[in-house]
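User: I'll paste a sequence; please echo it back and then give the predicted structure.

Assistant: Echoing your sequence first, then the prediction.
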Amino acid sequence: MVDNVRPSLPQNDPNQDERKDYLNRQQTAYQFDYGSLSPLALLKDVPAGENFSSRYIGERILATSELPANMLASDARSFLDPLDDLQDYEDFFTVLRLPAVARIYQTDRSFAEQRLSGANPMMLRLLDARDPRAQTLLNLPTLHPLVDRRQELQDNNIYIADYTGTDEHYRAPARVGGGTYEKGRKFLPKPRAFFAWRWTGVRDRGEMTPMAIQLDPNPDSHVYTPLDPPIDWLFAKLCVQVADANHHEMSTHLARTHLVMEPIAIVTARQLAKNHPLSLLLKPHFRFMLTNNELARTRLINPGGPVDELLGGTLLESMELAKEAYSTWSLDQFAFPTELKNRGMDDPNQLPHYPYRDDGLLLWNAIQTFVSGYLKFFYPTKEEIAQDVELQTWAKELASDNGGKVKGMPDHIDTVEQLIEIVTTVIFTCGPQHSAVNFPQYDYMSFAANMPLAAYRDIPRITESGNLEVITEKDILRLLPPHKRAADQLQILFIISAYRYDRLGYYDKSFRELYRMSFEEVFEGTQIELLAREFQQNLNMAEQNIDANNQKRVIPYFSLKPSLVLNSISI
């Protein structure tokens, strides 16, 4: 049994025929489907070997066992009318923990902080003074008296979250008409939100501050600021939250973790033998992902499913968001440090507070160190790379339009350094990146008054008299999800964020289920055991640093604590 998964490069394996037979079976079992959600490369049928283990099923059921009691206690009626008061949104949390954001969500500080450490910390980017969108700020007649807009732009202190579909770095369908529900229309606002990093006190202290929100990309449309009446400003912020929630679910979360990793998992299964060192390294990071992706397609993004019923757009429009995010993702540009740099969010001297960046880099470095040691052990020279026919076939099929169609993936691996960068990006995406956008869903999105999945009334319009529509508290309640939709939002987000299968860097659980052997047994007699322990130690050190940083943060950030990060997209 040990020999079956004893790590070996194909050129060194004495069992060449067994290896070829295994790969032939795998290529029959794992086939691509290019038609279901074109242009995505998906798995046609999920092989039995990818199914959930009995332990996984039991643990997941146990983790969500509180939900029925909470739904009964909250009297999950089928009312589709707006709730009577904002306080009513807290009443859904009768058994389940009320998220801390419920106490502060209407504040500007909470709104801005969610761009840096919330469920979707990837929409904010530095606004260049030469960007045409900067003119929106410069044209405002009034703004905070302490903000010199032109100077702040020149000093690179202005940031933007743009959901209009015109951002060249993050395109989205330009028009989302909105879906329907039993009592009428749903809406998906397409706002632009502007923020300023405000230095306060000493150089290393400051905070992100919302400056302006444009709900309509029409250049002549009204731009809301904190100087507007509080109800108007809250309405504008909630419209941003609706847009952010939709982009989070379909783009940041579904497309740019689950879907972009699927073809890499498929090709790994098709082209790398079971005992190939790269397969042994990657398989725990693909654990249960293909099964969960298939469940998402059949139970979440199906007609009448949660995406169709709860998100702002029609099902077709929501899927277009996912397809656009998928098609604009690439393996090289979404390596974590590169992605940060592309958004102008990489410099801690310019932006000293960005928990997603700071904690994420600790994990990226720990993963890269482990991957580097692991791959250099098996590929000490370029010859091993060049002679590894399975590795080269893996790269070729990943890059091919007839294979994985993975953008930014080279069709040939020349150096171990090249492979290290690729593998580090894959592991980071499956582990920390997915955990950072999946598990905060409960803390920020289950409380529907903070982050509604849809708007239930349109943005304010110009009246016949030429004035902007007046917003009242009743309009806030009409904007937010009605009773049943708010209950359904809590239910689905609790289900997909309540269970953690394993822990980043700890492989025994998945190895015993995959190979019926421990990690130590598979790599017995090699330095990989030591490298794995060092990996765990580096992750523990990262956690200590994060705990120390959280003591200084106004709102602690737990999403990238290594002990709470999974190896895989296993939920």
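The chain has a mean pLDDT of 92. The beta strands are 32-33, 42-43, 125-126, 158-162, 180-181, 184-185, 192-199, 206-214, 223-224.
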